[in-house]
Amino acid sequence: MPSLGTVYDFKLNEDVVVSVVIDEISSIICQKEQCHISGDRNEFLLFSEDKRRLLSLGLSLYENDIKTGDRLVLV
């Protein structure tokens, strides 16, 4: 995976559940960085820097109260 501190800008559908967003983000990052995830992608989480909390995997970005421009961290 890319190192800490690497920033990517994504345009995300607010109606998609977070678990799908994580899968899509990790796939795109790995394609760009030519890397392979050796572990289970289901173990990743999204953290909202603005709200200082982990997002609920089964809820959409909208239901997690994520707004345009919010900074999310893949952990």
Overview of the structural elements:
Strand 1 and strand 2 (53-54) form a beta hairpin. The radius of gyration is 12 Å and the shape is globular. A 3-stranded antiparallel β-sheet has the order 2-1-3. With 75 residues, the protein is α+β, with helices and mostly antiparallel strands. The model has no long low-confidence stretch (mean pLDDT 88). It is 21% helix and 11% strand. The protein has one helix at 18-33; strands at 46-48, 53-54, 72-74. The chain contains 1 helix and 3 strands.
Structural topology:
Blueprint: H1 18-33, E1 46-48, E2 53-54, E3 72-74
Antiparallel strand pairs: 1-2, 1-3
A few lines on this structure:
The chain is an alpha+beta fold and 75 residues long.
Based on secondary structure, the structural category is alpha+beta
The separation of the N and C termini measures: 11 Å
Please mark out the parts with pLDDT under 50 across 5 or more consecutive residues, or reply none: none
Q: Strands of the biggest beta sheet: in what spatial order?
A: 2-1-3
The helix content, as a percent range, equals: 10-25%
- How confident overall, as mean pLDDT? 88
Largest sheet: 3 strands, antiparallel
Shape: globular
Number of helices: 1
Alpha-carbon Rg, integer: 12 Å
**Count of beta strands:** 3
Strand content: 5-15%
Q: Which sequence of SSEs, written as H and E, runs from N to C?
A: HEEE
